[in-house]
């Protein structure tokens, strides 16, 4: 009888330990989804910032000057109608400058690089949405008993799929400039500080109430 009672007690202890291990594994799964969500969100902000930077660069350096040159080239013959030779000289000069701008624009490809960054940012936006959905689903299911090992397997499969999406989106896309990463980090830090101050102020109001 003592042996039987002892074996039952050991079985109960093993069952409790197994349950605790499953809960720990489940908690690690939730934390992994949370870390993935943060990473994808940061990457999305980085590539969006890089895309806006290169689009503005292309607009300021090439698009606006070329537009102004074309307008000037169109109205110049009207202004210099009495001096056609001077008009032809200026028209030739403007055409040469425009050709140089177009050649430089095609060589530097700021607009194309901006589009590539936008494409990668769109992929990360999709990953952010999917990861947040999985994180929310895990947090909702946490109070209920389930197959934690199966959830861990789903996490691994999700990570493999996310890595494939990242590699496919970034194929042929250049790396964002380092100053973009620093700018995004500064913005995130300022946002976090504002949120922390707002939470602290709200806590003070509740305490006073």
Walkthrough of the structure:
- The protein is mainly alpha-helical and 209 residues long.
- Helices cover 90% and strands 0% of the residues.
- It has five helices and no strands.
- The protein has helices at residues 2-79, 84-108, 110-141, 148-170, 178-208.
- Helix 1 (2-79) packs antiparallel against helix 2, helix 1 runs antiparallel to helix 3 and helix 3 runs antiparallel to helix 4 (148-170).
- The radius of gyration is 30 Å and the shape is elongated.
- The N and C termini lie far apart (62 Å).
List descriptors:
0% strand; 209 residues; mainly alpha
Helical residues, percent: over 70%
Query: In angstroms, what is the radius of gyration?
Result: 30 Å
Mean pLDDT: 81
Structural class: mainly alpha
How are helices and strands ordered from N to C? Answer: HHHHH
Query: What percentage of amino acids are in beta strands?
Result: under 5%
Tally of helical segments: 5
Largest sheet: none
Principal-axis shape:
elongated
The unreliable regions are 16-24
State the distance separating the first and last CA atoms: 62 Å
What's the count of strands? 0
Secondary structure elements and their pairing?
Elements lengths: L1 H78 L4 H25 L1 H32 L6 H23 L7 H31 L1
Helix pairs in contact: 1-2, 1-3, 1-4, 3-4
Quick synopsis:
This protein has five helices and no strands.
